[in-house]
Amino acid sequence: MCVVPAGAEPTEFKENRIAMRDFLTRLGIEEMNPGASDGEWFGSGGELESFCPTAGERIAVVRQASADDYDRVVKRAGKAFETWRMTPAPARGEVIRQLGLAMRDHKKDLGMLVSYEMGKILSEGEGEIQEAIDIADFAVGLSRQLYGLTMHSERPGHRMYEQWHPLGIVGIVTAFNFPAAVWAWNAMIAAVCGDTMIWKPSSKTPLTAIAMQKIANRVFADNGHEGVMNLVVGRGSEVGERMLHDRNIPLISATGSCRMGRRIGEVVAGRLARSILELGGNNAIIVTADADPALVLPAVVFGAVGTAGQRCTSTRRLFVERSVFDRTAESLIKAYKSLTIGDPLDEKTHVGPLIDEGAVKEMEEAIAKAVEEGGEVLVGGKRCDRPGNFVEPTIIKAHKDMKIVRDETFAPILYLFEYGDLDEAIAMQNGVDQGLSSAIFTTNLLSAETFLSHRGSDCGIANVNIGTSGAEIGGAFGGEKDTGGGREAGSDSWKAYMRRQTCTLNWSRELPLAQGVHFDL
Ligand code: UN1
């Protein structure tokens, strides 16, 4: 089924690679890049290579940050905080407005870099940069709306209100699958809130981080605010651990696996600091008998195979009502067979490669386990017979006793289940440890509202007639249970990046105590 463009050899990408050097140059990526920046670029740790997952060639090398480099960055971020927090929030928003414009100027090149380094298709690469631009726009507006409440005091001549102050240095840990946008969710909001920050990107996608940081450096330097946004490319075991334990960092916002999040949550809670955790998902779509098949098909296919199944929000489980099961399965199999797998920079491609060899192995293991547990591969199931980390998007007919369906495998595997009534489908959907995203396809109001009710989906995101992935930045993004409970991006997620202060002001000439307490001297 693997529809791969003819001549699928690494040399096939040669032309692209030559064109590519141009955009890497335009983004300031060189053969050898320092990976730490507080406005200046430096790095005295070991070398890290970045590979293109499509053809496996080395794109460039990064000189990582050592523990000493990390300390230098923290110092600079702390110093920048002293002036940045005193800069009025709308003036901070103005810098982010300029950063949004600068990202617009480089959208095409950045989108190509994301696609080249991470392997998602070009349209999704550009979409990711659009998401970064969108959150910048959101943050600009927010910079004039960091509202606190006022309360009526129970005491005469007293006024009570709350205000929001910047928190300090925020640590941002991001994953390879969204190497630009998830940083932007955190960075743009943290910046207008008056925080400075240190970004530790995934070691699988350091170049996208360096390109984004270069743009940020330029904009912040033009405005005389170096050191607000900082980058540290380095090993989790070195700089990552140091960051977790660092009492200079009151908030760590991290995206990654549940295992990683558990470690971060424990360490950060151990020093009574805060974390925002956006961890694994095991997202499901429920298709009722009255669902519109014209919506179901593209939503499920994009949800399950978009970004080659490597989104936190990817659709991993599909529950289809018995009477429409065969019809739905057939149309999905047909659609999967028509997918073009190949160079993500080719506009005809639907599915690019997985990030690395390890991801291919994990997918193969998950499929083998599913078969062992009684699952039936309906389509796909194998790695593609070509160089690179290409795999066939796979649908497995599953039953609810299978253990593997409880795991998040970062690959395009869709487990297909048949169900009888909606309560059963909702119970199966909620019956996993993760709780990020969920969706129902139905034209029945009662089914839709049941799904959205307190006894419906237990996830942080619940959609009707929309797939599980591709959330807009305007809402709060995150999930429940093992997904970690954090919220990033829109709505009032900004509150996590600030400290709340409740203020009571006495403008009378008396000193009454609250709760009617008397204490006469
Ligand atoms: C992620 O996979 O970590 O909702 C983020 C989506 C994107 C963000 C995904 N807007 O699919």
Q: What is the CATH class of the largest domain? A: Alpha Beta
User: Main β-sheet, in a few words?
Assistant: 7 strands, mixed
Number of domains: 2
Please tell me the CATH architecture of the largest domain by its name: 3-Layer(aba) Sandwich
Radius of gyration using CA atoms only: 25 Å
Low-confidence stretches: none
Tell me what the structure shows.
With 521 residues, this protein is of the alpha/beta class. A seven-stranded mixed sheet has the order 3-2-10-9-8-11-12, sandwiched between helices. A seven-stranded mixed sheet has the order 15-16-17-14-13-19-20, sandwiched between helices. Strand 6 and strand 7 form a beta hairpin. It has two domains: 81-279 and 487-500, Aldehyde Dehydrogenase, Chain A, domain 1 (3-Layer(aba) Sandwich), CATH 3.40.605; 283-474, Aldehyde Dehydrogenase, Chain A, domain 2. The chain is globular and about 80 Å long. Helix 3 packs antiparallel against helix 5 (122-142). It contains 14 helices and 24 strands. The mean pLDDT is 96. The protein starts with 13 loop residues before the first helix and ends in a 15-residue tail after the last strand. 2-aminohexanedioic acid is lined by residues 131, 177-178, 182, 255, 311-313, 469-471.
